[in-house]
Write a structure and sequence with these properties.
This protein has about 250 residues and is α/β, with parallel strands linked by helices. It is about 35% helix and about 20% strand. A seven-stranded mixed beta sheet has the order 3-2-1-4-6-5-7, with helices on both faces. The protein starts with 6 loop residues before the first strand and ends in a 13-residue tail after the last helix. About 35% of the residues are buried. This is Glycosyltransferase family 2 protein.
Length: about 250
């Protein structure tokens, strides 16, 4: 009998020492009865994120694993390294600031396990229907989602939502590049993977500050957007080769 967990919860975290203890306890409460692990990537934090994580682990959180970057490598690299280390069949991604609600994860798992789940389902993308961000952040997000949707046609109203449930094998087949986490729905569909959008809760940040500004997101996002658009236009996964006999 395998001891591998069914679910790996992946959390990139930079200077989130004040938010992680509560978030980790919420995850443990939400996933009672589940086979799971939690992998937190300390992305070059300058506060005591790493020491607090290790203290929580040694105080009786056996599902917790801690990875560390000596310097900040960004959210996409943190998620990718966590996915490589993960042992679960499915990956749930959460932001380290506590704004994503772990209580939404069981409902997403129920969809994956349900009899009506699409055969080729690889991704359930969270949709923050009631965002708890500043007006400028919400406006920038709406603009980016509309532009991305027109170019990539990924049918995703909120690709920036940190809460996603992804099949690990499907995720590791995706092309890796910095900021790729913003384009996971489009990249999954590029590989002919099925996707569903699921409404999720969103909460105000209780401590710390956002690590990215709206201008930073916009400048980097536009360059990446056209790169992903080019990549999708060059994709030939929807064609097959016939085996000849005789």
């Amino acid at each position: 009998m395998s001891n591998r967990p069914y679910l790996s919860v992946l959390i990139p975290a930079k200077n989130e020492a004040e938010n992680l203890p509560t978030l980790l306890e919420e995850i443990r409460h939400a996933l009672v009865g589940e086979s799971f692990e939690v992998i937190v990537v300390d992305d070059g934090s300058t506060d005591n994120t790493a020491s607090r994580l290790l203290a929580i682990k040694h105080a009786g959180y056996p599902q917790l694993r801690v990875l560390s970057h000596d310097r900040s490598l960004g959210q996409s690299t943190s998620i990718y390294h966590a996915a490589q280390a993960a042992e679960g069949t499915w990956l749930a991604t959460l932001d380290g600031d506590g704004q994503n609600d772990p209580a939404d994860i069981p409902g997403m798992l129920a969809i994956v396990r349900g009899p009506d789940a699409p055969i080729n389902l690889k991704l359930i993308a969270g949709h923050r229907v009631n965002r708890r961000d500043t007006a400028s952040k919400r406006w920038a997000s709406r603009f980016a989602n509309r532009l991305r949707g027109r170019l990539l046609k990924d049918n995703t109203p909120d690709t920036g939502c940190g809460l996603k449930l992804i099949e690990r094998e499907a995720f590791l087949r995706l092309p890796y590049f910095d900021h790729m986490h913003r384009f996971i729905p489009a990249l999954i569909q590029r590989h002919q993977g099925g996707m569903l959008v699921h409404p999720v809760n969103h909460r105000p940040r209780s401590a710390g500050v956002s690590k990215y500004g709206n201008l930073d997101r916009a400048l980097v996002g536009i360059l990446d957007l056209f790169g992903v658009w080019w990549l999708i236009r060059r994709t030939r996964f929807n064609t097959t080769a016939r085996e000849l006999e005789g």
